[in-house]
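User: I'm curious whether this sequence folds into something compact or stays loose and floppy. Could you predict its structure so I can see for myself?
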Amino acid sequence: MPKVLFDISRIFIRGARFSPTGIDRVVVAYARWLLSRNDIELQPVLTFGGSLFGVSRHMLARTIQRNAAFSRQRNSADDISPAWVALQRALGSGADPVQPLRARPVTGQLPHRAKWYLGIVGRALVYLQPFRAAPGDVYINVSHTGLDQPGVLGRLAARGVAPVVMVHDLIPINFPEYCAPAAEGRHRRRAAEIIRHARLVITNSSTTADELVCYAKAVGGTAPPTQVAPLGVEGDFLTAPQAMASARPYFVSVGTIEARKNGAFLLAIWRELAERMGADAPRLVLVGRRGWENEAVIDHLQRSKAVIRLVHEVSDLSDRELARLVRGAAALLAPSFAEGFDLPVAEALALRTPVIASDIPVHRELAGDAATLIGPLDGPAWLSAIRAAATARPPAPAYAAPTWPAHFDLLERVLRPLIAA
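Assistant: Here's the prediction. I'll summarize afterward.
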């Protein structure tokens, strides 16, 4: 029976703390799929210092079950998050809020984070086991985590292990100005390991695959065999949930608040809307945690009177709550400068919510004619499109959302020869 070494470093580090978003969702989806397979021998592993350490299959199953139970609880009608209650109150009132919704300051999270890091140390001492990969094993990493560590894929390949990795984007390389200073070097090390040693690369979009090919050529290499497999939309976005009720039209933007999401531009648009439309100006809900290089956004949220009056900022909504919020919006707004996939766009289109997004390659690939695409700095066009949608929500065309079953059906076909070999 073939042995699959599945790297769970990302969800091991986050432990029971996380409500999966972004890459976390991908790791959890793969874990569920691999745990359901009886035709492979699954060995969860962690990557530290370029070496692998084994973790019991039982520990992985328990982590996924605990997270699933947490998600079910959050998505039940009886468990409503405080953020959802506050948002219903804020959007349900026709009057401007005295106190707009804002994210919790980072300083208020420090005790929780300290407890979280201590938990990581405890789990490492309890669960880590010595482990050595054997020829014929297949190593799967779908999170980027650990791939920047020295020689991790090279050592596996030298032992006869077939490395299979997912590349989510090349944003730290192509757009380093939108990332933390150390991110570019870290991602270049990942890309070098992947180009030299991966037997198969999975990408979330053709855009990411093309960027990997171009980068490999630029550094004098050749991209490994690559399979495009779009990420799946979760079940809550494939149904027709009850829409959020609102006294006035509102728009939603979903994603970590960071420079590449172009949030400062969006808030400048909202200031212009406030000046032109007065009391009729729509509201905006920013959904996501605060990330890197977001000072311009925070300045707007804290100091612009027009923005303070009309914009709410929330995080930690359940999937069910987010689906209801997006379904009731006049449109989802995605003015990003760069994306590898952009799951919120697919989720909104699956809910038949209009989408106004930046005209970048991945949005053209993912949404095509189903969305209104505008240059990410074309202020007049964004202003006109938002005003029109606030006045009369446009009909959303039919959209075939990507699903996890389709993703894994495709993946099984490309992995089968590799595992059999």
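Summary: The mean pLDDT is 86. Residues 3-55+128-231+404-420 form a domain with the Rossmann fold fold (CATH 3.40.50.2000).
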